[in-house]
Amino acid sequence: MIKKNWTIEDIPDLQGKIIIVTGGNSGLGLASVKALAAKRAEVIMACRSVQRGNEARKLLLKDQPKAKIKVMELDLSNFWSIRMFAGDFKKDYNQLDILLNNAGVMMTPYTQTKDGVELQQSTNYFGHYALTGLLLDMLAATPGSRVVNVSSLAHKTGTMNFKNLLYEKGRGYTPYKAYSRSKLESLLFTFELQRFFEKNKLDCKALVAHPGVSYTNLFSHAAPKWIRAILLPAVKSFMQPAEMGALPGLRAAVDESAKGADFFGPDGAMQMKGYPVRVTASQHACNKDVARQLWDCSERITGVMFEYTPVLKMEVTSKMVV
Ligand SMILES: NC(=O)c1ccc[n+]([C@@H]2O[C@H](COP(=O)([O-])OP(=O)(O)OC[C@H]3O[C@@H](n4cnc5c(N)ncnc54)[C@H](OP(=O)(O)O)[C@@H]3O)[C@@H](O)[C@H]2O)c1
Predict the structure, then answer these.
(1) How far apart are the first and last CA of the chain?
(2) How far apart are CA 206 and CA 154, in angstroms?
(3) Is the pLDDT of residue 240 over 60?
(4) Is the CB of 178 under 6 A from ligand 1?
(5) What is the number of helices (H) and of strands (E) in the chain?
(6) Strand 18-22 relative to strand 42-47: parallel, antiparallel, unpaired?
(7) Which of 9, 113, 210, 282 makes the best surface tag, with the fewest CB within 10 Å?
(8) Distance, CA 314 to ligand 1 centroid (Å)?
């Protein structure tokens, strides 16, 4: 039997769906917004720069004038901005079908955010943890909703160290170690979130994806511009365009056969490029105790608790005496 590759053609009609894509103005996020809006979803590009968001939106609308795309401000490295975004979103919408936690930075020099959190983990993981928690009521109120976290192959080399989780004062920090830790955290979070959904019997799924390797702005901190310019022709053959890199996240977001805790990545050699298929997370990413410990730290660091009180259903039976 010939294997059929999953492509954007497989995205179903999404009319009536409300989707948030963090970092929707660039790279994989932009490719995802384009594909989802083309299938008639209403897409919110959650961007740290409204100007860059509006520029990206304008370009998308040139190709798809009828697309429903809105830009909203969200700085994931700032817990106050995340609270503002969640509040504004709830004023405008009463459903959330898909939360695509895509935004990220890679290999930045050691930086502490205003909230005192190491920048890469704050943007890539803690910000998305907080955003998801603050939007939990919307997700819970939307049947079949999904949270998709974007991780990376780098999660395989990530390690957790709860004694120095945030590389306090830069102790033990290297740009790559912090990046790979943040991507391991995305996986640990996804699996714990799925357990949370199941425990609370919520009609929501948590899924995760990695894009392989796509040449995007993400690499702007990985090496100086002139080195990247020299290396690009050589490394490009190992990379795929953003449109392909976005496919695993898109599949996790919309494939009807996808289950909670599924992990999608490219099917090519070493999962660096190709079409999206189910892939396996590192053993470390599946450790329930570590995931629980990370969740506890996340509550403390972000101040966001996943509070969900199920609505009690009063069952009226014929035996009830009125
Ligand atoms: N490209 C790859 O090969 C690759 C591989 C593995 C994983 N990933 C993951 O894929 C995701 C998307 O990356 P990409 O390759 O598309 O890179 P990109 O082109 O640099 O896009 C990253 C997006 O995240 C946004 N962002 C950064 N910091 C933010 C913050 N504090 N608040 C809100 N948004 C913020 C960026 O906004 P600005 O435009 O304003 O900077 C941009 O829109 C990331 O999570 C990345 O780790 C990518």
Answers:
(1) 64
(2) 20
(3) yes
(4) no
(5) 11, 8
(6) parallel
(7) 9
(8) 46
CA distance 90 to 103: 21
pLDDT digits (tens, 9 = 90+) for 180-235: 999 999 999 999 999 999 999 999 999 999 999 998 999 776 767 777 777 777 77
Q: Which CATH class is domain 12-302?
A: alpha beta
State residue 277's pLDDT score: 98
**216 C-beta closer than 6 A to ligand 1:** yes
Which of 217, 244, 271, 272 for a ligand 1 pocket mutation test, highest count of atoms within 8 Å of Cβ?
217
Ligand 1 centre to CA of 139 (Å) is 23
pLDDT confidence band for 49 (50 / 70 / 90): very high
Are 178 and 287 in contact by the 8 Å Cβ rule? The answer is no
**What are the domain boundaries of the chain?**
12-302
The answer to whether 173 is a known catalytic residue is no
- Average model confidence (pLDDT) across the chain: 94
145-150 sheet: strands from edge to edge: 68-73, 42-47, 18-22, 98-101, 145-150, 204-209, 263-266, 276-278
pLDDT at 265: 98
- CA 105–ligand 1 middle distance (angstroms): 5
Question: Is ligand 1 within 6 A of the CB of residue 54?
Answer: no
Measuring CA to CA, how many Å separate 191 from each of 11, 44, 49, 234, 292? 24, 25, 30, 36, 10
What angle do the packed helices 175-199 and 127-134 form, to 10 degrees?
20
